[in-house]
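Much of what follows relies on a compact textual record of a protein's fold. Here is one such record, which you should read through line by line:
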Amino acid sequence: MSAHFDVEHPVESTGGWRVLAPFRFREYRLLISALSVSIFAEGMWAVVMAMQVIALDNDPASLSLVAACLGAGLVAFVLVGGIAADRIDQRAIIITVEAVNISVVLTVAIMSSLGVLRIWHMAAGAAMLGIAAAFFFPSYSAMLPRILPADQLLAANGVEGVVRPVLERAVGPAVAGVVVGVTFPAVGAYAVAALFAIGLVLLVITRPVKVVAAQHDVKQAHVLGDMRDGFRFMVRTPWLLWTLLFASIFVLVVLGPIEVLLPFIAQQRFEDGARTYGFVLAAFGIGSAIGALGVSSGRLPRRYLTVMMVMWGAGSLPLVVVGWTSSFPVMALATFIVGVTDGAGSVIWGTLLQRRVPREMLGRVSSLDFFVSLAFLPVSFAIAGPLSKVVPVGTIFLAAGVVPVLLAAIAMVAARMPRDEIQNPLR
């Protein structure tokens, strides 16, 4: 199935910044507005969820369990989400996801208010949110090339690259940290549900997808056949395969410590743990936004694969500092630097997929991207808490900072990325 949106009435001017060009189109403006509100909600939820779990059971293993359930839901269904994105109206999928998000978070808020919430409830809710996210990401990735010209995809990914870290890793956590710090987690959960509701309204008022009738002549392959075709494309494309292998191990050694151990580090080393945790995440988010804005404001780098891998590999080194410092400014600066490199690399990666993957396979390849790169996400979340009881936190963060450097070097050599990017220019 192929679809497009009515973009016949763009606004006339966006000024001199290339990153603002996508805002000429109505559907993109509504989509990015809804996405921004939802991302803000997700940023708040990261802190609300962590603080709610700590309030119920002050044990890293409990937060590991809840975070692992979220990751497991995402990984288990992301391939199905990719196939759905290539077969079903992406707008309908995203609207459904937003409705599920509202239901789950509102249920948690009500149960917390009534005093009946338990860890297993949080785990079940996290799994549902993970499943919803598994359907959202491929649909959003597949939708952008249908509503924007190819030369504006870098800018659109740059906008998301600015909006996501600022709201998800900066404003959202900071606001949630203050709210939870002066009240209790249920209040934060009610606020998150309200934000998801606003996002749902914005999505509903977008124009329905217009199905291109001619595309229905394409034979409808079996679901497993669709998945197999996407997997074959991944295996036969070295830059894609090795980047995803790099991402898999990166997730295993990096995300668990950040998502599970960092809240406890903040609680143990600083007087106001919730607020400090929120501001540390905020530093990461601001850095990501700056990195994304810097890349998307210009043209795609000629050595786009090299720049991306160097950003992700060397950019993890400041995590070593997070493991031992008790200084908030130092910790914030370290996460800021990690954010800058993460944001810049992510914008290049998203644009690379949309430019070098055939459009009819973009949903499946995007889902394979999420599946392969996040396959170890539940494992990372599950082992981080228990591992911290037998291995010093500083050692865990040392591995998180150093291992990605080695992995990035291996991936670049194995996939011959420097040669590939010259043979396939995207500027």
Q: What stands out?
A: The first strand starts at residue 3 and ends at 4. Residues 206 and 214 are 24 Å apart (CA to CA). The first helix runs from residue 26 to 56. The chain has 16 helices and two strands.
